[in-house]
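Q: Hi! First time doing this. I have a protein sequence and I read that you can turn it into a structure. Is that right? Here it is:
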Amino acid sequence: MSETRPKNLVVVLLDSLNRHLLGCYGSREFETPAIDAFSAGSLRFTRHHSGSLPCMPARHDILVGALDFPWRPWGSIEVWEDAITRSLRDCGVTTMLVSDHPHLFETGGENYHTDFNAWLYERGHESDPWRTAPDPSWVGTPALPVDRPAYRHAYDDSRTYFRSEEDFPGPRTMRAAAEWLRTSAPSHERFFLFVDEFDPHEPFDTPLPYAGMYDPGWSGPLSIWPPYLIGATASGALDARKAAHIRANYGSKLTMIDRWFGHLLGAIEEAGLAESTAVVLCTDHGHYLGEHDIFGKPGAPIYSELARIPLLVRWPGQAARDVEALSTSVDLHATIRDFFGARADHPTHGRSLLPVIEGTTTSVRDLALFGYWGRHVGVTDGRHRYLRGCGETNLPLSVWSNRWSTMPTPFPNTRLPRPDRRARLETMPGTDVPVICQPFEAGDRLPFWAAGPPPSESFLFDTEDDPAETLNRAGSAAEAAFVDAIAGELRSIAAPADLLRRIGVA
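A: Yes, that's right. Below is the predicted 3D structure, encoded as structure tokens:
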């Protein structure tokens, strides 16, 4: 370890944090004073990109270091791999998780938390099955009247137990992390704190003064559950007034959690850890709020609003500056490993960003893969973004996993189909471990993320000449180089052969 390098690391993941709505990345739509002040003293990465989407695949990228989306839609740590925290413990680093992210503690999210030295789960966010009935003493504040989703949701009961802003899961998570920094962190020689905060993810539920902050003219119940729609207003499924209201409620959630992020930063100062502790602010992906007339994270092309994500790194001894190096989520795992001198005993796909952070190089990769399982496969060079479609049929398609699960949802018939007689054993690339490989065929019920119309069309965008990504250059002479690039990147990680065939680059 460099003598001038900090000893400790705090990583704060704010879920669904839209880069294009942060003040430090040029937006003036919503207030984010704490994040903006943090950015002013940090390295601001300008070409950071999602890898595997959505929530749990992204956390697999960060905590395990291997791209998840080429093999499966959603799942826990597999039997041939470990979270970074296992090797950190072997290095004598104290690891702590503070989170309100329910997917970490559901089927499909198992084992990400178990190798932390300690972990704390703040209950009540989104799908967390925390309560079975509303608080009988609830009198209506601060939980304001809201539109109900079409299905029963655990959050309907949980929100009635929040008596003040401090009782909402996001603030509780940040307060708990701050308390650990004040009371426990100074006792440890070296520590890694991972704050996996689910805000500003939906539901976009906030108390006063945040509720209505960006839409004071709204008089009805708050719409806190964004729809998942393509062509939202053009189809008539969502009127423009309500679309603006939902977007404003995201802003309210963003501003609330920004305040509590500032509280966490204050605890680092109060504990006397500022000079010995690096702090990383990141996310898993963005969230469509009307861009391209899309809401949520449906089966749509992965535009920049979803996949070009913020990365801010405050590093003692390093001056604030913009970093133009291309980076992606698996690079965070490689950076943590390099920072603490830890090892990985399974195949990983990241590149350490320490040389970029410390100024010994300006680049660690030329290309980055990204995508959802069963949908477009993307590659970017930091300027161009190529989304490779699959033609008329989304086949061949397979899941590789020994942890047979998918994202739990309140919708019927979304359980991952069980393996059947068509399944075969393969060897997971880079290991001697057999893995179940389950193919899907025409007529099969597909896992959650691949359901719906196939991602047939390819897209190529030049984000410098066309930042709004309205001009699709697929079909031009420029596309050939990106077809070769995506094929080469997939082969470099030994991605399944049927994936290359599905998108026509085999």
